[in-house]
């Protein structure tokens, strides 16, 4: 569809940032200006290092040194193998992205209520350039970090979800990202924007699947803006392939009396970072943020969660759990800031980690900064191994050791999974966890056959 | 059924059992009484195969075979059941799921067919009625948020469903009111059969009023200092344990953990 400009394969991310402005053939000038600005931001600020509070436990070296090629700027979709892809179906609207580009033949967009749009970002730019402006920040934007800026600079596709006032979409809207990369280190930058009008409600599910053996980078950005009284459930099911890098930023702006939920299950990638950033600027909003991360092997899963309570009477509850095996590394870096004037804030932050091996490592840092009176804030963190009393209890009832382990581990996970909406979404999440745990437990030699 | 010969056991370098001899024939219910720290709970845990307890010498035969050679799940499969003094909470695992997993694990180990969900439901509902278990507790996580009495009732329910050949009750009566005691006693009585046995460990006589044992053993200082008929329980209750320690010529020094 369009030819690449300025960017060629083989550059590292750092070089990509210094190369200047990539533009797509025929793209609007405002977008070129945004890309130029975002690229300049990276050149000015550089990539995060361990000196940054929110990045102190994550080793980015293996990622920044990779020779990469940006995905989706040229060439047709890799048609081979797509037909055989078993993409589980949630039964609702489904927008499939292959290696960062919209794949219409795999997608299914059913009829939507009036005033509601679900469409690929690429089409949105072409269709109505003026409206598409609001899917990017304006030049001069203060990015959270280089990866957020890089997404703005490199994003060529993704998904737009716009819900009209009072509209309720009953079936899930699924955005499935599939990476089929076999060789080149490809960086794809999906950009998802959700505008939920006043009193609207919907469920958006982002799934990430890797089918290839190659090294690739997913640098996703999801921006969510909720109107007054809107309700949105957001799911991220991350099952990228073992050698990949996954970075995602979920940026949420809840309206007054709105309700937002973020639920994460992460099993994939060599290095994965699932960032959530919520700014509560309107009264009476509620956010629930839950996550389950299961790094194994030499994987690292980082979960930075930053919640800013600016307006009064907002509620934020977080439950993050990690199940860390082998020589893997799990990180929870939660930060709740209650600004002056945010009276009546109700903030809860809980992080629990289960270490399944002696080499597994966890860093947990729940932080709470309170500058307002009359607030209710709690936080807690725990890191532990399988409870030996519970193991003995189960075994004394005849349950073999391997099955007892499995029962305790899945029980630990279930406390997060039971917060997922019942039906195909929860089933998919449970399946992701079960398949992962079976593989992990099998490798550690404690397997004992089928249940 | 159960023959314990000169059993010595320790936790770390602390010796708790100092030569226990005890025989429970099939068809009988025996009580073990003793003061705090006499090694009662240690005896129960050693029989069930709990890890930190090391058997330093002695032998235990269960139906003629070496019980100590088996791991906990193998003992369960062989028909041994321990009702815990402090039942463990298992977050995220429902009581119903757990109980069915346990029953089917035993069935598999014994080469029986697994019990299907509806068949299991019928079975468990009947047992729940028998022990007065609240239905709502079955869909909750195992023992999580249960009251002390509910936890003990849950132990008896498990015992009723799993139908052990040798039931060991570790101070299951502690902290229970008279109605709950009756549930425990009924649970044990319901299991009485010529080919089964029970070992009821208790601090007080109260339980033994509802559950008349065939024999009573008094454990002091990690040793059985006296055995007798059901009347011995009343004697202990009246006189306390002080008299018994003198019979061994030793001062009974409290040992072991009293959780």
Could you explain the architecture of this structure?
The complex is a heterodimer of chains A (451) and B (259). Helices cover 21% and strands 35% of the residues of chain A. Chain A has 451 residues and is of the alpha/beta class. Chain A has a domain at 387-451. In chain A, strands 1, 4, 5, 7, 8, 10, 12, 14, 16, 18 and 20 form an eleven-stranded mixed β-sheet that branches. In chain A, helix 2 (29-45) runs antiparallel to helix 6, helix 7 (388-396) crosses helix 8 (401-417) and helix 8 packs antiparallel against helix 9. Chain A is globular and about 70 Å long. With 259 residues, chain B is α/β, with parallel strands linked by helices. Chain B has helices at 40-48, 72-77, 95-109, 117-131, 148-162, 178-191, 206-210, 231-239, 242-247; strands at 2-11, 14-24, 29-33, 53-62, 65-66, 80-83, 90-94, 141-142, 166-170, 197-202, 215-220, 223-228. In chain B, the strands form three sheets. Chain B has a six-stranded mixed β-sheet, with helices on both faces. In chain B, strands 2-1-4-5 form a four-stranded antiparallel β-sheet. In chain B, strands 7-8 form a two-stranded antiparallel sheet. In chain B, strand 9 (166-170), helix 6 (178-191) and strand 10 form a beta-alpha-beta unit. The longest helix of chain B is centred in the middle third of the chain and has 15 residues, at 95-109. Mean pLDDT of chain B is 90; it is low at 249-259. The A-B interface holds A 387-390, 392-401, 403, 407-408, 410-415, 418 and B 48-51, 71-73, 75-77, 81-82, 84, 87-93, 98, 101-102, 105-106, 109, 141, 158, 162.
Task: Please give the oligomerization state of what you see.
Answer: heterodimer
Rg of chain B computed from alpha carbons, rounded to a whole number of angstroms: 18 Å
Strand order, largest beta sheet of chain B: 6-9-10-3-11-12
Count every beta strand of chain B, where a strand is a DSSP E run of 2 or more residues.
12
Unreliable parts of chain B = 249-259
Termini separation of chain B (Å)?
A: 29 Å
| Residues in β-strands, percent of chain B | 25-35%
CATH superfamily of chain B: P-loop containing nucleotide triphosphate hydrolases
Percentage of residues assigned to helices of chain B: 25-40%
CATH-derived architecture of chain B: 3-Layer(aba) Sandwich
Task: Assess the beta-strand content of chain A as a share of residues.
Answer: 35-45%
Specify the structural class of chain B. alpha/beta
Distance between the termini of chain A: 51 Å
How many H/I helices of chain A? 9
């Amino acid at each position: 569809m369009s030819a690449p400009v300025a960017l060629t394969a083989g550059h590292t991310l750092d070089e990509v940032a210094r190369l200047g402005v990539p533009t797509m053939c025929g793209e609007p000038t405002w977008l070129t200006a945004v890309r130029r600005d975002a690229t300049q931001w990276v050149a000015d600020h550089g990539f995060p290092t361990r000196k940054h509070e929110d990045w102190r436990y994550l080793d980015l070296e293996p990622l920044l040194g990779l020779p990469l090629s940006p995905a989706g700027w040229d060439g047709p979709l890799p048609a081979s193998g797509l037909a055989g892809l078993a993409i589980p179906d949630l039964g609702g609207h489904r927008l499939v992205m292959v290696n960062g580009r919209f794949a219409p033949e795999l997608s299914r967009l059913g009829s939507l209520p009036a005033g509601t749009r679900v469409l690929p970002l690429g089409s949105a730019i072409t269709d109505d350039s003026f409206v598409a402006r609001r899917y990017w920040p304006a030049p001069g934007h203060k990015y959270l970090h280089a990866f957020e800026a890089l997404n703005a600079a490199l994003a060529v596709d993704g998904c737009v979800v716009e819900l009209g006032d009072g509209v309720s979409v009953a079936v899930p809207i699924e955005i499935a990202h599939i990476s089929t990369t076999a060789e080149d280190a490809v960086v794809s930058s999906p950009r998802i924007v959700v505008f939920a009008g006043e009193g609207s409600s919907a469920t958006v599910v982002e799934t990430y699947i890797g089918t290839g053996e190659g090294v690739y980078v997913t640098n996703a950005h999801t921006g969510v803006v909720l109107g007054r009284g809107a309700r949105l459930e957001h799911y991220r099911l991350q099952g990228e392939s073992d050698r990949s890098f996954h970075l995602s930023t979920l940026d949420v702006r809840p309206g007054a009396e709105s309700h937002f939920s973020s639920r994460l299950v992460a099993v994939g990638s060599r290095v994965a970072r699932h960032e959530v950033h919520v700014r509560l600027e309107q009264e009476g909003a509620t956010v629930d943020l839950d996550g389950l991360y299961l790094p194994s092997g030499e994987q690292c899963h980082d979960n930075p969660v930053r919640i800013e309570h600016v307006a009064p009477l907002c509620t934020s509850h977080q439950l993050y759990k990690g199940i860390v095996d082998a020589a893997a590394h799990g990180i929870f870096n939660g930060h709740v800031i209650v600004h002056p004037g945010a009276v009546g804030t109700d903030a809860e932050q809980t992080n629990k980690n289960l270490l399944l091996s002696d080499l597994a490592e966890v860093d947990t840092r729940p932080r709470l900064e309170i500058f307002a009176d009359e607030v209710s804030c709690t936080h807690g963190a725990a890191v532990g191994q399988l409870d030996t009393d519970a193991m003995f209890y189960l075994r004394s009832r005849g349950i073999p050791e391997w099955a007892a382990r499995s029962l305790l581990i899945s029980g630990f996970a279930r406390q997060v999974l039971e917060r997922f909406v019942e039906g195909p979404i929860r089933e998919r999440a449970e399946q992701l966890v079960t398949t992962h745990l079976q593989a992990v437990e099998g490798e550690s030699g404690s397997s004992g056959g089928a249940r | 059924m159960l023959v314990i010969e000169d059993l010595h056991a320790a936790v770390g370098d602390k010796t708790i059992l100092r030569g226990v001899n005890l025989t429970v024939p099939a068809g009988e219910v025996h009580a073990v009484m003793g003061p705090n720290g006499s090694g009662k709970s240690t005896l129960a845990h050693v029989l069930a195969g709990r890890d930190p307890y090391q058997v330093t010498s002695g032998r235990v035969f269960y139906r003629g075979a070496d019980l100590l050679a088996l791991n906990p799940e193998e003992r369960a499969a062989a028909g041994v059941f321990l009702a815990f003094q402090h039942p463990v909470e298992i977050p995220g695992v429902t009581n119903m799921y757990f109980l069915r997993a346990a029953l089917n694990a035993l069935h598999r180990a014994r080469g029986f067919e697994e019990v299907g969900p509806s068949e299991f439901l019928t079975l468990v509902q009947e047992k729940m009625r028998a022990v007065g278990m609240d239905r709502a507790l079955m869909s909750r996580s195992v023992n999580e948020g249960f009251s002390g009495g509910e936890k003990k009732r849950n132990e008896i329910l498990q015992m009723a469903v799993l139908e052990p050949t040798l039931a060991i009750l570790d101070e299951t009566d502690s902290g229970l009111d008279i109605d709950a005691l009756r549930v425990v006693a009924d649970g044990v009585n319901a299991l009485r059969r010529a080919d089964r046995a029970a070992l009821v460990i208790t601090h007080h006589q109260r339980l033994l009023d509802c559950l008349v044992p065939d024999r009573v053993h008094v454990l002091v200082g990690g040793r059985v200092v006296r055995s007798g008929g059901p009347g011995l329980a009343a004697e202990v209750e009246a006189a306390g344990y002080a008299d018994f320690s003198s019979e061994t010529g030793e001062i009974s020094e409290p040992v072991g953990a009293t959780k």
